[in-house]
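My current task is to audit a protein record that another person submitted. Thanks in advance; the entry in question is below:
***
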Amino acid sequence: MPSVVALFLFVLSSACQPDRSDADNMTENDFARKRQEMVRSQLKRRGISDQNVLSAFEKVKRHLFVPPEHRRLAYADQPLPIGEGQTISQPYIVAYMTQALEPEAADRVLEIGTGSGYQAAILGEICENVYSIEIVPSLGKRARGQLNELGYDNVHVKIGDGYQGWPEHAPYDAIIITCAPTEVPAPLKEQLAEGGRMILPVGKQFSQDLVLLKKKGGELFQEKVLPVRFVPMVDDAGHTY
């Protein structure tokens, strides 16, 4: 699907230039209509069919997870800047990665890279418990506050190095990583439960593949599913993994 793959590249277009004028005049009904159109045109038309995933996208207010100056573009088919050199992924890539995990209600999920908290909220609508790690303190604190304010008591956020995972709550039925290491982190392989699924971008800055792993019989089976470009996974000192 070349035309779809091209949409995954995290390139911030000129349309991302700050402009609050339109958003300031928009009502919740306006945002709801844009959200419904996003689900119809960006997700369903591209093959997102898991009803739990679609229902989560219909419910979660994406505009509350982007900075006010970019809120008018909250439901556009593109990534958006959220500060600290980070982005919120375009809706389709969030949906694609979520659906690939085959999330179930009783699942315990680990997310590496909380960012704005949007992906965590989507998972929180579907799964029993979500544990999310963000290495940038300002983003992690902001996301935690937003998620708490919106009532996501089943989503737990901590500031830390996601490469190491969150062993206290392992094993996880699903692990999703929204930043790119050059190889699958060994600690996360260990924290994945038998029968669990993991999805993440792997590779160097300009050459990454979205990889889906499944653990069966104690072994990990890996499949490349899409070429993508994500921000790199870094440690506390800013060094890439």
Notes: Residues 2-228 form a domain with the Rossmann fold fold (CATH 3.40.50.150).
